[in-house]
Amino acid sequence: MERNRSDEKTRRKPSGAAVPRADLTEALYRAFFEEWAERGFSALSLERVAARAGAGKAAIYRRFPSRLAFADAAISTLGLQIALPQAEHKTLAEDILALLLRARAVLRHPLARRILPDLHAEAARSAEMRAINDRLALARREQAEALLNRAVCRGQLPEQVDRDLALDLMVAPLYWRMVVRGVTPSRAELAMQSRAIEAGLKASTRDRARQ
């Protein structure tokens, strides 16, 4: 009896190098962050990461040549998620509130709360980790700068606004409260904070113009 060629093709395994699967890559990222949160980057084991993801260590090295490269890819992916475009609102305070709500969603995650302080500590010791940390910060600052540009176009902030100061003010108080103090603010508290940031930016711009 002649074998069905379509069945044979279905059963045949692909030859050549294995193709990295997106779902496995995502599982490896999750396992990497879980391992990092539990043990810190300095004690992070790629063998344990692979085991958490239900994969072999070879699955990691097909994607990343080193632990640092793995961290770079995982953090860059997180940075892109944080920097997703936000809807435009009518006022600067509303735009700031939307940014703070998104930052709160990231910072309230238990893994983020444990990893971020360790990331900053590693960045203080390692130039390579400093570069990775800077790219993550840049993703956040680019999103916040788009918010400032909209406010300038609407006439809610002058063109000469101190952008470095403004970008620091946007999320730094929230980071301090959530990551350093371990307190999660309510939406009402974030709305108050957004109005305070708006007022501070306008006041600092007036002071700068008088200098």
From TrEMBL:
- State the Pfam families in the record: TetR_C_11 (PF16859), TetR_N (PF00440)
InterPro entries listed in its UniProt record: Homeodomain-like_sf, HTH-type_TetR-like_transc_reg, HTH_TetR, Tet_transcr_reg_TetR-rel_C_sf, TetR_C
> Where in the numbering of this chain does the HTH tetR-type domain appear?
22-82
UniProt KW Ligase keyword: no
According to the UniProt record, which residues make up the DNA-binding region?
Answer: 45-64
Q: Where is the signal peptide?
A: none
Q: Where are the transmembrane segments?
A: none
Keyword annotations of the record: DNA-binding, Transcription, Transcription regulation
This entry's Gene Ontology molecular function terms read: DNA-binding transcription factor activity; transcription cis-regulatory region binding
Q: Which residues form a coiled coil?
A: none
Q: Which PANTHER family match?
A: HTH-TYPE TRANSCRIPTIONAL REGULATOR RUTR, TETR-FAMILY TRANSCRIPTIONAL REGULATOR
- Can you name this protein? Transcriptional regulator, TetR family
User: Organism, per UniProt?
Assistant: Salipiger thiooxidans
Biological classification of the source: Bacteria, Pseudomonadati, Pseudomonadota, Alphaproteobacteria, Rhodobacterales
